[in-house]
Write a structure and sequence with these properties.
Length: 420
Amino acid sequence: MSQKTEKPVLSGQRIKTRKRDEKEKFDSTGFRDSLLTGLIDAGTDLDAVSKYLDVAGSKLDYRRYGETLFDILIAGGILGPSGVTPGDGGKLAPACVFTSENSMEALKGYEQVFFKLMRRYKYLEKMFEEEMRKVYTYMKRFSEDERMKLARMSGLWFCNGSLSPSVLQVIAVEHLVKDNLALDFILEVFTVWKQEKGMSNLVSALKRTGLETKMMEFFPLNKRSPEHFQGAFEERDLAEIIKLQKNQANQEVKKDLQKILSDALIENKSAKDIVTEVKDFSMKNNMVENEIVSIVWTSLMGAIEWNKKEELVSDQALKYLKNYTSLLGTFCTNTKSEMTLMLRIQDFCYDNMNFMKVFSKIVVLLYKTDVVSEDVIMKWYKDSHSSKGKSVFLEQMKKFIEWLQNAEEETESGEEEDDE
Protein backbone atom coordinates (compact mmCIF):
# COMPACT_ATOMS: atom_id res chain seq x y z
CA MET A 1 0.00 0.00 0.00
CA SER A 2 1.51 3.23 -1.11
CA GLN A 3 1.50 6.34 1.08
CA LYS A 4 1.33 9.89 -0.21
CA THR A 5 4.50 11.79 0.38
CA GLU A 6 3.83 14.92 2.41
CA LYS A 7 4.80 18.08 0.66
CA PRO A 8 7.35 20.16 2.49
CA VAL A 9 6.02 23.32 4.07
CA LEU A 10 7.78 26.45 5.14
CA SER A 11 7.70 27.03 8.80
CA GLY A 12 9.16 29.61 11.05
CA GLN A 13 8.37 32.43 13.37
CA ARG A 14 6.52 35.42 11.99
CA ILE A 15 8.53 38.57 12.57
CA LYS A 16 6.47 41.38 14.01
CA THR A 17 7.30 44.97 13.17
CA ARG A 18 8.33 46.84 16.27
CA LYS A 19 6.27 49.88 17.09
CA ARG A 20 9.21 52.23 16.87
CA ASP A 21 9.91 50.98 13.31
CA GLU A 22 6.39 51.68 12.11
CA LYS A 23 6.23 54.90 10.14
CA GLU A 24 3.83 57.23 11.83
CA LYS A 25 1.33 58.89 9.55
CA PHE A 26 1.99 62.60 8.95
CA ASP A 27 -0.85 64.45 10.65
CA SER A 28 -0.42 68.22 10.54
CA THR A 29 -4.08 68.86 11.36
CA GLY A 30 -3.82 66.71 14.50
CA PHE A 31 -0.71 68.65 15.53
CA ARG A 32 -2.52 71.93 14.76
CA ASP A 33 -5.51 71.05 16.94
CA SER A 34 -3.31 69.89 19.84
CA LEU A 35 -1.23 73.06 19.67
CA LEU A 36 -4.29 75.31 19.37
CA THR A 37 -5.80 73.81 22.53
CA GLY A 38 -2.86 75.05 24.60
CA LEU A 39 -2.58 78.39 22.79
CA ILE A 40 -6.27 79.13 23.28
CA ASP A 41 -5.84 78.44 27.01
CA ALA A 42 -2.84 80.83 27.09
CA GLY A 43 -4.91 83.54 25.39
CA THR A 44 -3.17 86.79 24.44
CA ASP A 45 -0.73 86.70 27.37
CA LEU A 46 2.56 86.37 25.49
CA ASP A 47 4.47 85.22 28.58
CA ALA A 48 1.92 82.41 29.01
CA VAL A 49 2.23 81.59 25.29
CA SER A 50 6.04 81.31 25.57
CA LYS A 51 5.80 79.12 28.68
CA TYR A 52 3.29 76.82 26.97
CA LEU A 53 5.44 76.52 23.82
CA ASP A 54 8.49 75.73 25.94
CA VAL A 55 6.72 72.86 27.76
CA ALA A 56 4.73 71.60 24.75
CA GLY A 57 7.93 70.89 22.82
CA SER A 58 8.55 67.81 24.96
CA LYS A 59 5.14 66.36 24.03
CA LEU A 60 4.42 67.71 20.55
CA ASP A 61 6.73 66.86 17.65
CA TYR A 62 8.15 70.29 16.74
CA ARG A 63 10.87 68.67 14.69
CA ARG A 64 8.32 67.05 12.39
CA TYR A 65 5.69 69.77 12.39
CA GLY A 66 7.85 72.87 12.58
CA GLU A 67 6.23 74.37 9.47
CA THR A 68 2.76 74.02 10.99
CA LEU A 69 4.02 75.46 14.28
CA PHE A 70 5.28 78.64 12.60
CA ASP A 71 2.14 78.89 10.43
CA ILE A 72 0.01 79.05 13.57
CA LEU A 73 2.25 81.56 15.35
CA ILE A 74 2.18 83.84 12.30
CA ALA A 75 -1.40 83.45 10.99
CA GLY A 76 -3.32 81.57 13.70
CA GLY A 77 -3.85 78.45 11.53
CA ILE A 78 -2.25 76.46 8.71
CA LEU A 79 -1.14 78.63 5.79
CA GLY A 80 -1.63 77.57 2.19
CA PRO A 81 -2.07 79.03 -1.30
CA SER A 82 -5.77 79.61 -0.58
CA GLY A 83 -5.21 81.34 2.76
CA VAL A 84 -5.44 80.26 6.42
CA THR A 85 -7.05 76.96 7.44
CA PRO A 86 -8.37 77.21 11.04
CA GLY A 87 -8.71 74.37 13.53
CA ASP A 88 -11.85 72.43 14.45
CA GLY A 89 -14.83 74.72 14.81
CA GLY A 90 -13.04 77.52 12.96
CA LYS A 91 -10.67 78.12 15.87
CA LEU A 92 -7.55 80.25 15.42
CA ALA A 93 -4.75 81.04 17.82
CA PRO A 94 -5.78 84.17 19.75
CA ALA A 95 -2.15 85.35 19.86
CA CYS A 96 -0.39 85.44 16.49
CA VAL A 97 1.39 88.03 14.36
CA PHE A 98 -1.65 88.71 12.17
CA THR A 99 -3.93 89.42 15.16
CA SER A 100 -1.38 91.61 16.92
CA GLU A 101 -1.81 95.34 17.33
CA ASN A 102 0.06 97.00 14.46
CA SER A 103 2.59 98.86 16.59
CA MET A 104 6.30 98.25 17.03
CA GLU A 105 5.87 97.80 20.79
CA ALA A 106 3.28 95.05 20.33
CA LEU A 107 5.23 93.34 17.55
CA LYS A 108 8.40 93.29 19.64
CA GLY A 109 6.50 91.15 22.13
CA TYR A 110 5.86 88.58 19.38
CA GLU A 111 9.49 88.84 18.30
CA GLN A 112 10.45 87.60 21.77
CA VAL A 113 8.04 84.65 21.51
CA PHE A 114 9.81 83.47 18.34
CA PHE A 115 13.27 84.25 19.73
CA LYS A 116 12.72 82.28 22.97
CA LEU A 117 11.21 79.35 21.08
CA MET A 118 14.14 79.02 18.66
CA ARG A 119 16.68 79.51 21.43
CA ARG A 120 15.06 76.63 23.33
CA TYR A 121 14.71 74.38 20.26
CA LYS A 122 17.72 75.22 18.08
CA TYR A 123 16.72 72.87 15.26
CA LEU A 124 13.81 75.21 14.50
CA GLU A 125 16.16 77.93 13.23
CA LYS A 126 16.78 76.32 9.85
CA MET A 127 13.12 75.33 9.56
CA PHE A 128 12.10 78.93 10.22
CA GLU A 129 14.04 80.22 7.22
CA GLU A 130 12.40 77.64 4.95
CA GLU A 131 9.02 78.50 6.44
CA MET A 132 9.44 82.20 5.68
CA ARG A 133 10.36 81.49 2.06
CA LYS A 134 6.94 79.80 1.81
CA VAL A 135 5.04 82.47 3.75
CA TYR A 136 6.40 85.30 1.60
CA THR A 137 5.17 83.63 -1.58
CA TYR A 138 1.59 83.70 -0.17
CA MET A 139 1.81 87.44 0.48
CA LYS A 140 -0.83 88.35 -2.09
CA ARG A 141 -3.40 86.39 -0.05
CA PHE A 142 -2.84 88.58 3.01
CA SER A 143 -4.59 91.84 3.81
CA GLU A 144 -2.66 95.11 3.62
CA ASP A 145 -2.56 95.23 7.44
CA GLU A 146 -1.24 91.66 7.64
CA ARG A 147 1.48 92.41 5.06
CA MET A 148 2.51 95.47 7.04
CA LYS A 149 2.80 93.46 10.27
CA LEU A 150 4.72 90.72 8.49
CA ALA A 151 7.13 93.28 6.99
CA ARG A 152 7.75 94.88 10.39
CA MET A 153 8.23 91.49 12.05
CA SER A 154 10.63 90.52 9.25
CA GLY A 155 12.64 93.67 9.93
CA LEU A 156 12.91 92.65 13.59
CA TRP A 157 13.87 89.07 12.67
CA PHE A 158 16.60 90.33 10.34
CA CYS A 159 17.92 92.61 13.06
CA ASN A 160 18.14 89.88 15.71
CA GLY A 161 19.65 87.34 13.32
CA SER A 162 16.68 84.95 13.24
CA LEU A 163 16.50 85.37 9.46
CA SER A 164 18.95 86.16 6.67
CA PRO A 165 17.80 89.02 4.41
CA SER A 166 18.67 86.82 1.43
CA VAL A 167 15.21 85.19 1.84
CA LEU A 168 13.68 88.41 0.50
CA GLN A 169 14.74 87.35 -2.99
CA VAL A 170 11.73 85.01 -3.13
CA ILE A 171 9.33 87.97 -3.36
CA ALA A 172 11.00 89.39 -6.49
CA VAL A 173 8.54 87.46 -8.64
CA GLU A 174 6.10 88.81 -11.20
CA HIS A 175 2.81 88.31 -9.31
CA LEU A 176 4.18 90.24 -6.30
CA VAL A 177 6.24 92.79 -8.22
CA LYS A 178 3.66 93.99 -10.74
CA ASP A 179 1.24 95.30 -8.07
CA ASN A 180 4.00 96.97 -6.00
CA LEU A 181 3.55 94.43 -3.18
CA ALA A 182 7.21 93.39 -3.21
CA LEU A 183 8.45 97.00 -3.26
CA ASP A 184 6.13 98.17 -0.47
CA PHE A 185 7.19 95.17 1.60
CA ILE A 186 10.95 95.74 1.37
CA LEU A 187 10.54 99.49 1.97
CA GLU A 188 8.76 98.75 5.25
CA VAL A 189 11.37 96.11 6.18
CA PHE A 190 14.24 98.53 5.53
CA THR A 191 12.52 101.35 7.44
CA VAL A 192 12.22 99.13 10.54
CA TRP A 193 15.78 97.90 10.12
CA LYS A 194 17.13 101.45 9.95
CA GLN A 195 15.17 102.42 13.09
CA GLU A 196 16.39 99.40 15.05
CA LYS A 197 19.99 98.95 13.95
CA GLY A 198 20.98 102.01 11.93
CA MET A 199 21.66 102.53 8.25
CA SER A 200 25.23 101.24 8.24
CA ASN A 201 24.08 97.87 9.60
CA LEU A 202 21.42 97.63 6.88
CA VAL A 203 23.80 98.58 4.08
CA SER A 204 26.42 96.07 5.30
CA ALA A 205 23.84 93.28 5.32
CA LEU A 206 22.65 94.12 1.80
CA LYS A 207 26.24 93.98 0.54
CA ARG A 208 27.03 90.79 2.45
CA THR A 209 24.02 88.89 1.10
CA GLY A 210 24.27 90.23 -2.45
CA LEU A 211 20.87 91.96 -2.27
CA GLU A 212 22.47 95.27 -3.29
CA THR A 213 22.75 93.93 -6.84
CA LYS A 214 19.08 92.91 -7.01
CA MET A 215 17.25 95.96 -5.65
CA MET A 216 15.80 97.02 -8.99
CA GLU A 217 14.13 93.58 -9.35
CA PHE A 218 11.56 94.54 -6.68
CA PHE A 219 10.23 97.31 -8.95
CA PRO A 220 7.55 96.72 -11.62
CA LEU A 221 9.05 96.49 -15.11
CA ASN A 222 7.72 99.91 -16.16
CA LYS A 223 9.32 101.56 -13.11
CA ARG A 224 12.84 100.15 -13.24
CA SER A 225 14.56 103.49 -13.68
CA PRO A 226 16.91 105.60 -11.53
CA GLU A 227 14.15 108.22 -11.17
CA HIS A 228 11.56 105.79 -9.77
CA PHE A 229 14.18 104.17 -7.54
CA GLN A 230 15.23 107.51 -6.09
CA GLY A 231 11.65 108.64 -5.54
CA ALA A 232 10.63 105.45 -3.69
CA PHE A 233 13.60 105.42 -1.31
CA GLU A 234 13.71 109.18 -0.71
CA GLU A 235 10.10 109.04 0.45
CA ARG A 236 11.18 106.57 3.17
CA ASP A 237 14.29 108.57 4.11
CA LEU A 238 16.57 105.81 2.80
CA ALA A 239 18.98 107.98 0.83
CA GLU A 240 21.93 105.71 1.63
CA ILE A 241 20.33 102.91 -0.39
CA ILE A 242 19.97 105.30 -3.34
CA LYS A 243 23.71 105.92 -3.12
CA LEU A 244 24.31 102.17 -2.90
CA GLN A 245 22.20 101.60 -6.01
CA LYS A 246 24.03 104.34 -7.93
CA ASN A 247 27.37 102.75 -7.07
CA GLN A 248 26.06 99.37 -8.13
CA ALA A 249 24.70 100.78 -11.39
CA ASN A 250 28.07 102.44 -12.00
CA GLN A 251 29.83 99.12 -11.55
CA GLU A 252 27.48 97.51 -14.07
CA VAL A 253 28.20 100.30 -16.57
CA LYS A 254 31.94 99.76 -16.12
CA LYS A 255 31.53 96.03 -16.75
CA ASP A 256 29.56 96.79 -19.92
CA LEU A 257 32.31 99.14 -21.15
CA GLN A 258 34.94 96.48 -20.46
CA LYS A 259 32.88 94.04 -22.54
CA ILE A 260 32.65 96.53 -25.43
CA LEU A 261 36.42 97.08 -25.37
CA SER A 262 37.21 93.39 -25.00
CA ASP A 263 35.02 92.48 -27.99
CA ALA A 264 36.45 95.30 -30.10
CA LEU A 265 40.04 94.24 -29.39
CA ILE A 266 39.26 90.58 -30.12
CA GLU A 267 37.78 91.68 -33.47
CA ASN A 268 40.91 93.76 -34.17
CA LYS A 269 38.94 96.95 -34.68
CA SER A 270 40.95 100.08 -35.38
CA ALA A 271 41.67 102.59 -32.61
CA LYS A 272 39.47 105.09 -34.44
CA ASP A 273 36.47 102.73 -34.44
CA ILE A 274 36.99 101.86 -30.78
CA VAL A 275 37.11 105.56 -29.87
CA THR A 276 33.74 106.07 -31.55
CA GLU A 277 32.15 103.15 -29.69
CA VAL A 278 33.56 104.19 -26.32
CA LYS A 279 32.52 107.82 -26.81
CA ASP A 280 28.95 106.85 -27.68
CA PHE A 281 28.66 104.49 -24.71
CA SER A 282 30.23 106.87 -22.19
CA MET A 283 28.00 109.77 -23.26
CA LYS A 284 24.85 107.67 -22.90
CA ASN A 285 25.89 106.56 -19.42
CA ASN A 286 27.37 109.86 -18.16
CA MET A 287 30.77 108.36 -17.44
CA VAL A 288 33.63 110.57 -16.28
CA GLU A 289 36.87 110.62 -18.24
CA ASN A 290 39.23 109.32 -15.57
CA GLU A 291 37.03 106.22 -15.11
CA ILE A 292 37.02 105.63 -18.86
CA VAL A 293 40.79 105.85 -19.32
CA SER A 294 41.32 103.47 -16.39
CA ILE A 295 39.06 100.86 -18.03
CA VAL A 296 40.66 101.44 -21.44
CA TRP A 297 44.13 100.79 -20.00
CA THR A 298 43.01 97.67 -18.12
CA SER A 299 41.23 96.31 -21.20
CA LEU A 300 44.21 96.96 -23.48
CA MET A 301 46.68 95.23 -21.23
CA GLY A 302 44.36 92.30 -20.58
CA ALA A 303 43.65 91.63 -24.25
CA ILE A 304 47.01 90.15 -25.14
CA GLU A 305 49.19 87.27 -24.00
CA TRP A 306 52.48 88.80 -22.90
CA ASN A 307 55.87 87.25 -23.50
CA LYS A 308 57.16 85.57 -20.37
CA LYS A 309 60.73 86.64 -21.08
CA GLU A 310 61.53 89.96 -19.48
CA GLU A 311 63.98 90.98 -22.22
CA LEU A 312 61.34 90.52 -24.94
CA VAL A 313 58.23 91.91 -23.27
CA SER A 314 59.47 95.50 -23.48
CA ASP A 315 59.55 95.57 -27.30
CA GLN A 316 56.26 93.69 -27.44
CA ALA A 317 54.52 96.18 -25.12
CA LEU A 318 55.81 99.33 -26.85
CA LYS A 319 54.94 98.03 -30.32
CA TYR A 320 51.44 97.09 -29.13
CA LEU A 321 50.73 100.36 -27.29
CA LYS A 322 51.83 102.52 -30.24
CA ASN A 323 48.70 101.30 -32.02
CA TYR A 324 46.46 102.61 -29.27
CA THR A 325 48.02 105.89 -28.11
CA SER A 326 45.27 107.81 -29.91
CA LEU A 327 42.66 105.77 -27.98
CA LEU A 328 44.32 106.56 -24.65
CA GLY A 329 44.87 110.19 -25.62
CA THR A 330 41.19 110.72 -26.47
CA PHE A 331 40.31 110.10 -22.83
CA CYS A 332 43.26 111.93 -21.28
CA THR A 333 42.29 115.55 -21.81
CA ASN A 334 42.67 116.75 -18.22
CA THR A 335 45.11 116.43 -15.33
CA LYS A 336 42.96 114.00 -13.33
CA SER A 337 42.66 111.56 -16.23
CA GLU A 338 46.38 111.72 -17.01
CA MET A 339 47.27 111.08 -13.36
CA THR A 340 44.80 108.19 -13.23
CA LEU A 341 46.53 106.63 -16.23
CA MET A 342 49.99 107.10 -14.67
CA LEU A 343 48.84 105.31 -11.52
CA ARG A 344 47.17 102.48 -13.45
CA ILE A 345 50.43 101.96 -15.39
CA GLN A 346 52.36 101.89 -12.12
CA ASP A 347 49.95 99.33 -10.63
CA PHE A 348 50.14 97.13 -13.72
CA CYS A 349 53.93 97.12 -13.90
CA TYR A 350 54.18 96.35 -10.19
CA ASP A 351 51.63 93.51 -10.34
CA ASN A 352 53.28 91.97 -13.44
CA MET A 353 56.92 91.37 -12.60
CA ASN A 354 58.07 91.17 -16.23
CA PHE A 355 57.00 94.80 -16.64
CA MET A 356 58.98 96.21 -13.71
CA LYS A 357 61.71 97.49 -16.06
CA VAL A 358 59.27 98.65 -18.73
CA PHE A 359 57.49 101.35 -16.72
CA SER A 360 59.65 104.31 -17.73
CA LYS A 361 59.62 103.25 -21.39
CA ILE A 362 55.81 103.23 -21.44
CA VAL A 363 55.66 106.66 -19.81
CA VAL A 364 58.17 108.11 -22.31
CA LEU A 365 56.12 106.68 -25.19
CA LEU A 366 52.94 108.29 -23.86
CA TYR A 367 54.79 111.59 -23.32
CA LYS A 368 56.12 111.63 -26.89
CA THR A 369 52.62 110.90 -28.27
CA ASP A 370 51.00 113.65 -26.15
CA VAL A 371 48.94 111.29 -24.02
CA VAL A 372 50.44 112.46 -20.71
CA SER A 373 51.93 115.89 -20.14
CA GLU A 374 55.22 116.97 -18.63
CA ASP A 375 53.45 118.62 -15.68
CA VAL A 376 51.61 115.42 -14.73
CA ILE A 377 54.77 113.31 -15.01
CA MET A 378 56.65 115.77 -12.78
CA LYS A 379 53.81 115.82 -10.25
CA TRP A 380 53.64 112.03 -10.22
CA TYR A 381 57.40 111.90 -9.60
CA LYS A 382 57.34 114.46 -6.77
CA ASP A 383 54.35 113.50 -4.68
CA SER A 384 51.53 111.71 -6.48
CA HIS A 385 52.98 108.23 -7.07
CA SER A 386 51.65 105.25 -5.15
CA SER A 387 53.75 103.13 -2.83
CA LYS A 388 53.77 100.12 -5.18
CA GLY A 389 57.32 99.63 -6.47
CA LYS A 390 58.02 103.24 -5.55
CA SER A 391 61.81 103.03 -5.22
CA VAL A 392 62.23 101.00 -8.45
CA PHE A 393 60.03 103.25 -10.58
CA LEU A 394 61.36 106.54 -9.23
CA GLU A 395 64.91 105.37 -9.95
CA GLN A 396 63.89 104.38 -13.49
CA MET A 397 62.34 107.79 -14.09
CA LYS A 398 65.22 109.79 -12.62
CA LYS A 399 67.12 110.44 -15.89
CA PHE A 400 63.97 111.31 -17.79
CA ILE A 401 62.88 113.74 -15.06
CA GLU A 402 66.32 115.39 -15.16
CA TRP A 403 66.01 115.70 -18.92
CA LEU A 404 62.57 117.32 -18.55
CA GLN A 405 63.92 119.78 -15.98
CA ASN A 406 66.92 120.71 -18.14
CA ALA A 407 64.71 121.15 -21.18
CA GLU A 408 62.44 123.42 -19.18
CA GLU A 409 65.40 125.51 -17.96
CA GLU A 410 66.75 125.83 -21.50
CA THR A 411 63.33 126.93 -22.73
CA GLU A 412 63.07 129.55 -19.99
CA SER A 413 66.61 130.77 -20.72
CA GLY A 414 65.81 131.06 -24.44
CA GLU A 415 62.68 133.07 -23.68
CA GLU A 416 64.68 135.51 -21.51
CA GLU A 417 67.22 136.04 -24.31
CA ASP A 418 64.41 136.75 -26.77
CA ASP A 419 62.96 139.33 -24.37
CA GLU A 420 66.30 141.13 -24.23
